[in-house]
Design a protein that fits this description.
Keywords: Membrane, Transmembrane, Transmembrane helix. It comes from Halomonas flagellata. This is Sulfite exporter TauE/SafE family protein. It is built from ten helices and no strands. By secondary structure, the protein is mostly helical. Helix 1 packs parallel to helix 8 and helix 1 runs antiparallel to helix 10. The longest helix has about 35 residues. The radius of gyration is 20 Å and the shape is globular.
Length: about 240
């Protein structure tokens, strides 16, 4: 099975990345969620209305992830057609990014956070459009704001986009980014006591170590598959042809 296809293992891995990256999401997005909630006029803070706004925010956010994944995969497809051997390099890059993500999730190495600097210039241009939508009182507004919010610089998202680049198929990459976005929902949506419980579970060393080892195993499987495919291609090129 090709590790870049979108069968259950890659989709499950993408979901786990989002779920276990939730500690990062709580730090980056938890405050935003609270600020957006308190920005709603007190007279309009009925549970049903707030639930609709929260759903709108997150649908917009996940949609922006899927669009970004599709665009990056389209770039990967163009590169594959334009440059010989680039597909193998992109697959190796994706596996390396998975390992870096695992190190981040396990708290073994935090260098992945520095990747976020790559998107700050874009965010400075996009973020003012979000401010114009405040305060949010309607679901379409919430969806629009979430779509902007999804472009906030995030090392975990950039790691997933590196995987999308290797997939090089827009629809599959969008599906994978959607699975990642769904994985982030428990941490982003949790509040109060629930948020503390989710955070404690996500931050528990055993949970994070187990997830990191699973991710590293998946990355190793990708590299092994690539090596075996390369080996078979080399053997095929050495086999004499018969006319």
């Amino acid at each position: 099975m090709d590790p870049a296809d979108l069968s259950l293992p890659p989709l499950a891995a993408a979901f786990i990345f989002g779920l276990l990256g939730g500690a990062h999401c709580i730090g980056m997005c938890g405050g935003i969620m609270s600020a957006l909630t308190f920005a709603v006029p007190p007279s309009m803070r009925q549970p049903g209305r707030l639930a609709g706004l929260l759903l709108g925010y997150n649908l917009g956010r996940i949609t922006s992830y899927m669009i970004a994944g599709a665009l990056v995969a389209l770039l990967g497809s163009v590169l594959n057609h334009a440059l010989d051997g680039i597909a193998l390099a992109l697959r190796i890059l994706a596996a390396v990014m998975l390992v870096l993500m695992a190190l981040y999730i396990a708290n073994w190495w935090k260098g992945l956070v520095h990747v976020e600097a790559l998107g700050r210039a874009l965010w400075r241009r996009v973020e003012p459009f979000g401010r114009r939508l405040m305060p949010v009182v309607k679901v379409p507004q919430a969806f629009a704001l979430g779509s902007i919010w999804g472009w906030m610089p995030c090392g975990l998202i950039y790691s997933m986009l590196a995987w999308s680049l290797a997939v090089a198929e827009p629809l599959r990459a969008a599906t994978m980014m959607g699975a990642f976005g769904l994985g982030t929902l428990p941490a982003v949506l949790a509040t109060g006591v629930a948020a503390r419980r989710v955070s404690l579970w996500i931050r528990h060393p055993a949970t994070r170590t187990m997830a990191a080892l699973l991710i590293i195993s998946f990355a190793a499987w990708q590299l092994w598959h690539l090596q075996s495919m390369t080996g078979m291609d080399d053997m095929a090129s050495m086999t004499p042809s018969h006319h």
